[in-house]
Amino acid sequence: MDSIVSSIIKQFEERSAAGKAKYGTDLDRTDLTLLEWIEHAKQEHMDAILYLEKIKQQFLQENKL
Q1: pLDDT by residue (tens digit) across 25-40?
Q2: Distance CA 65, CA 60 (A)
């Protein structure tokens, strides 16, 4: 396994442990409906789009593009 894949796996493991510590549960939980899981995923993707736009604007500003 290459170093990038190893790094990502480690990050997933750390994120899982942090989520379990913070929320007291993990993705094996069964208390959410399919629609609730979809909403969680949608919210996470919306956050990701905001982060990408921030990074893009900062890059453009720093590089005077």
Answers
A1: 999 999 999 999 999 9
A2: 5
Q: Which residues contact 40 (CB under 8 A, 6 or more apart)?
A: 32
Do both 22 and 36 map to the same domain? no
Measured distance CA(38)–CA(60) in Å, rounded: 33
Dmax (CA) for the chain in angstroms is 49
Q: What are phi and psi of 25, to 5 degrees?
A: -155, 175
Cα distance between residue 45 and residue 38, in whole Å: 11
Can you give the residue range of the structural domain that contains 5? 1-28
pTM across the whole model = 0.77
- Here the contacts of 44-52 (C-beta below 8 Å, separation 24 or greater) are none
